[in-house]
Amino acid sequence: MSSRDTFDSNAAAFFGGVKSALTSVFCLVLMGTYIGIGALAHDFGLASWWLALSTVLVWAAPAQVILISATGAGAPLIEIAIAVSLSAIRLFPMVVALLPLLRGQGTRLRDLLLPAHFTSVSMWVESLRLLPTIQHQHRVAFCNGLSVGYMGTAATFGFVGFYLAAGLPPLLAGTLLFLTPMSFLISTARNARMMVDRLALVLGLILGALLTYLHVQLDLMWTGMVGGTLAYIVHRVREVAT
Fold it and tell me: What is the reported pTM?
């Protein structure tokens, strides 16, 4: 998409978003990931409708893995809710970064509620790449279509994995789940054009591995806070020096 006149209506923008989702590499990643999640839900004895509902309501693969494994293990509901909520906090900065691209003249608050819920890493990465080429009045509709395409793919292949679980080796199921973080890493590296972005990515990879090795609690949170802060400080010092 190179023209701002790609869509002539919100309906066209919505279906354009669906098409973009179904033709992106993230669609393939979601297929593999949710086959693994479906198999995991089956192994814990959860119902297929429960899996589909959690996909729509939670809409974050890592949080769903926490939800499924904790529920299957019989953890208290309050502990499950806290764990899933803490996992979802990582998406808040993505929502903050995405909303300025969606908000245009005349955009109402209620128009932004659905994209805020739909925000996931795959949707966020593709939205940042594609939205600048789309007129403001069609961006919300396009974003919703993009998310519906991804969510529909996830729900569909969750069912596939659920009913294939009996013949799916555990190693293969685990490998499919590994597709998601690897695809996000590759996409983030591809979109990191500024020095501060690249430095934050490198620091995150180093700190994440180190904190995991040292068994530091909340390692993902500390990785983001420390790595991002250090990258920002280096960026500011470099700007002052030049």
Answer: 0.73
